[in-house]
UniProtKB/TrEMBL annotation:
Stored SUPFAM superfamilies: Triosephosphate isomerase (TIM)
High-level lineage: Bacteria, Pseudomonadati, Pseudomonadota, Betaproteobacteria, Neisseriales
Record key words, sorted: Cytoplasm, Gluconeogenesis, Glycolysis, Isomerase
InterPro entries found in the cross-reference section: Aldolase_TIM, TIM_sf, TrioseP_Isoase_bac/euk, Triosephosphate_isomerase, Triosephosphate_isomerase_AS
Protein name according to UniProt: Triosephosphate isomerase
Cited function: Involved in the gluconeogenesis. Catalyzes stereospecifically the conversion of dihydroxyacetone phosphate (DHAP) to D-glyceraldehyde-3-phosphate (G3P).
Entry EC no(s): 5.3.1.1
GO terms of biological process kind: gluconeogenesis; glyceraldehyde-3-phosphate biosynthetic process; glycerol catabolic process; glycolytic process
GO cellular component: cytosol
Pathway note: Carbohydrate metabolism; erythritol degradation; Carbohydrate biosynthesis; gluconeogenesis; Carbohydrate degradation; glycolysis; D-glyceraldehyde 3-phosphate from glycerone phosphate: step 1/1
Reactions it catalyzes: D-glyceraldehyde 3-phosphate = dihydroxyacetone phosphate
Enzyme class at the top of the EC tree: isomerase
């Protein structure tokens, strides 16, 4: 297999508290290995505490979103520079919950990814089709469109991570089968290579959507799946560690 960074990313969404940070970070720090990155994305108010707890361990951390401008009168938002200052290595952008609930379009997601890169934060860019898209045979068209908006703005040397998260699999307990996910990941690599040939092999692509301790290994065994973006199961540190060990 190609030499790509492998990683498991915990997306806590709007769950957890300081106690969860203080309980889980020491356990994660003990388990984190150089061969697979372990990344925690807590709610933004906890990033400072997670940063302190992760200090000098192998655990990386990041935000779940970022503003599409560098600064300004944007109540309730934060910039990529602020994340960089806090030591965030990553920021999730374009999660389906942001696209859906906050009406983020492909252009917005593309700008957010570019803001991250300019600030030295690696964007974890989420793409994914709805069940309606899939059932009407539009999965590849929708994904190609989402990807194009993002890649058009990306410098050739940019470092970014892609996360394939079928919307119908997020929080539903209905994960894609390893074969379904592999097919899409191979398609995404092909699309990446159309923009920059090296990207097809070099870009880390995570699968997300109802990854649990008992299905992670079969998903992560697929050749084009480099790890996972984990929602619900990441709130239980033992489940998260089990998933991490499967990667
Ligand atoms: C997610 O929110 O990115 C996600 C994949 O959630 P879950 O694992 O709960 O499906």
């Amino acid at each position: 297999a190609a030499k790509r960074a492998r990683m498991v990313v915990a997306n806590w969404k709007m769950f957890g508290n300081l106690a969860l940070c203080r309980e889980s970070l020491p356990l994660l720090a003990k388990a984190a290995d150089v061969s697979v990155e372990l990344v925690v994305c807590p709610p933004a108010p906890y990033l400072g505490e997670v940063g302190r707890l992760a200090n000098r361990s192998g655990v990386h951390y990041g935000a779940q979103d970022v503003a599409e401008v560098t600064h300004g009168a944007r109540t309730g938002e934060w910039s990529a520079d602020m994340l960089a200052e806090l030591g965030c290595r990553y920021a999730i952008v374009g999660h389906s919950e942001r696209r859906d609930r906050h009406r983020e379009c492909n252009q917005t997601v593309a700008v957010k990814a570019a803001m991250c890169i300019a600030a030295g934060v690696i964007p974890i860019v989420c793409v994914g089709e709805t069940m309606e898209d899939r059932e009407s045979g539009k999965t590849e068209v929708v994904l190609a469109e989402q990807l194009k908006a993002i890649l058009q703005r990306m410098q050739k040397k940019a470092v970014f991570v892609l996360a394939y998260e079928p919307v119908w699999a997020i929080g539903t307990g209905l994960a894609a089968t390893p074969e379904m996910a592999q097919d899409v990941h191979a398609f995404l690599r092909h699309q990446l290579a159309l923009f920059v040939p090296a990207w097809g092999d070099s870009v880390t692509i995570l699968y997300g959507g109802s990854v649990k301790a008992d299905n992670a290994a079969s998903l992560f065994a697929m050749p084009d799946i480099d790890g996972g973006l984990i929602g619900g199961a990441s709130l239980n540190v033992l489940d998260l560690l089990s998933i991490y060990r499967s990667a």
